[in-house]
Amino acid sequence: MQTSFTSNAPWRTACLSLVLSLCTGWALAEYPDKPIKLVVSFTAGGTTDILAREVGMQLTARWGVPVVVENRAGAAGNLGTEIVGRAAPDGYTLLANSFGPIAINPTLFKNLPVNAQRDLQPIALIAEVPTVLVVPSVSGIHSLPELLKFAKERPNDINFASTGIGTSAHMTGFLFSQRAKLNAIHVPYKGAEATRDLVAGRIHYMFATVPSVIALIKAGQLKALAVSTKMRSRSLPDVPTLKELGVDMATGSWFGLFAPKGTPMAIVQKLNEAVIKALDDAQVNARLVAQGAEPVPMNVDEFSRFVRTEYETWIPIVRDSGAKPE
After folding, report:
1. pLDDT below 50 — which residues of the chain?
2. What is the pLDDT, as a whole number, of residue 156?
């Protein structure tokens, strides 16, 4: 009996592999056959929300199933991450998130119940987004040298806002203070609420993603002084980079799509290909650029490596900042 079982082992293995292959192929052919929930870790109207809704709209148009955006802001983006990290890995609960919760929070927060680096599967990079240094127009400041002069005349009375501790606005603001030798006070807000106080002049300056403030810049309520990226933004071509103005730093923000760890790779690949096709569409591309985002197609392996490299790059910066979660 033992000999017979052993001799049949290769046949059994081959049959099992065939069954698994057929099941995987069937699941991929059927996916998606019901609505997809797309969780956004921040409030409506912010950059993550804007990009998520564009991607959701394109997936709905291509597949004919609703992609329902659900804003679950809280805990510096960790709430949305946790909801998706604990969801069934079947491709029907996805996460749109910015680099803060993905690349910064695993260092900033200790003992996260859901760690983005461990518990999420990267799917696709949606866009890289320049971060722009803005001041309220009511301040009368028109250039970076004017802001630096203003700040150095008030060494203990200058502040900058962010959309929360550990966000790109916070970390970029910290780096700027470090490189420009400013003693600026960080004022964290919850999500996009920071821009209201900035426009009113209660905050001196802020680093914000271009899509979140471009309308206010064009309306004359905010003045753009510089972008923090290596290259100028196609959306704000007349705004110089910090490096052009003598501040040695170059950083930006990015936004991507994720699934729970363990989601079948066939589904992950299908989602990745759909996002890339959407980003390659001329009209979609133009809309994102007009909003201040730079679409950057990457395959799954490329995006996974990108996410890991970003995490490792920001570890020492987060530690140097001394930031503590609220």
Report:
1. 1-7, 20-24, 26
2. 85
Contact 152, 165 (CB under 8 A): no
The reported pLDDT for the residue numbered 28 is 61
Q: Cα-Cα-Cα-Cα dihedral of 40, 45, 51, 57, to 10°?
A: 90
Which CATH entry fits the domain spanning 131-227: 3.20.20.150, 3.30.1240.10, 3.40.190.10, 1.10.10.10? 3.40.190.10
Handedness of CA 58, 60, 66, 67 (dihedral sign): negative
Burial class (CB within 10 angstroms; exposed 0-12, middle 13-18, buried 19+) of 2: exposed
Cβ-contact 168, 97 below 8 angstroms:
no
Enter the tokens of residue 305.
């490596």
**Residue count (the chain):** 326
223 alpha carbon, distance to own chain's centre: 24
**CATH of the domain spanning 31-129+253-321:** 3.40.190.150
Burial class for 224, CB neighbours closer than 10 Å (0-12, 13-18, 19+)? buried
> What span, in angstroms and rounded, lies between the C-alpha atoms of 198 and 206?
8
Identity of the amino acid at 240: P
Domain ranges of the chain: 31-129+253-321, 131-227
Q: Which residues make Cβ contacts (< 8 Å) with residue 138, sequence separation at least 6?
A: 199, 200, 201
Report how far residue 188's alpha carbon sits from residue 317's, in angstroms, rounded to the nearest whole number: 18
Q: Which residues are within 8 A (CB) of 104 and not within 5 positions of it... i.e. 6 or more apart?
A: 166, 167, 171, 314, 318
Amino acid at 118: R
Give the DSSP per-residue string, 180-215.
HT--PEEEE-SGGGHHHHHHHTSSSEEEEEHHHHHH
Q: What confidence score (pLDDT) does residue 1 get?
A: 44
In this prediction, residue 5 carries a pLDDT of: 39
Strand pairing report for 131-136 and 222-227: antiparallel
Q: What is the pLDDT of residue 163?
A: 83
The DSSP secondary-structure symbol of 137 reads G
Q: Which amino acid is at 16?
A: L
Bridge partner list, 260 = 120
